[in-house]
Amino acid sequence: SGDKLLGGPQAGLILGRRDYVMRLRKNHLFRALRVDKLTYIALRGVLEVYVESRESELPVIKNIEMNTQELKKRAQRVVRGLKKIGQKSVICEIVDSIAEVGGGSLPGIPLKSVAVKVRVEGINAHQLAGRLRLADTPIIGRIEGEWVVMDMRSLLEGEEAMIVKGIRRAID
Question: What are the extents of the domains in the chain?
Fold first, then answer.
């Protein structure tokens, strides 16, 4: 998997004996499933990063390797931003969490993580989660009881403000 295993473009890679790979190329679905040139270029760039031992520069690898202290700093930035909204109806907490590197390539590998859980008086968790999903930039959290929980390991660097903005718009 180009995206899950390598942190690059979404692509399925087939490796194996030449005669088996050639048989697959002759399948009538090959033409429909082949990737475009942009995917090849992106995949080449990611593979070069690995060849040069610079994989820690890739966002997905950065997030997997990030320690919980850094994740807690992200969470604190989100909570500070939510408190600046100035609405007492927004209740948020920083909690320990377990994130999973997911998908068929890395099924269910648990990682210690940090999350921000949010609830808003007058809006149930399902309504809040739905509004966040429908935002200009969708925000996906999980529902735990009355809370919408957002794991900080799934954010890219600097996206904390986007979470705050999304929640502000969801409660207006």
Answer: 1-65, 66-171
Give the SS3 label for residue 147.
Answer: strand
CATH classification number, 66-171, choose in 2.40.40.10, 3.90.1150.180, 3.30.9.100, 3.90.230.10: 3.90.1150.180
pTM: 0.78
24's tokens: 């697959």
Instruction: For residue 17, give both structure tokens.
Output: 């004996």
* Helical (H) or strand (E) element with 39: helix 37-51
Distance CA 101, CA 171 (A): 30
2: helix, coil or strand? coil
* pLDDT tens-digit series, residues 104-140: 556 677 899 999 999 999 999 999 999 999 988 899 9
Cα 26 to the chain's mean position, in Å? 36
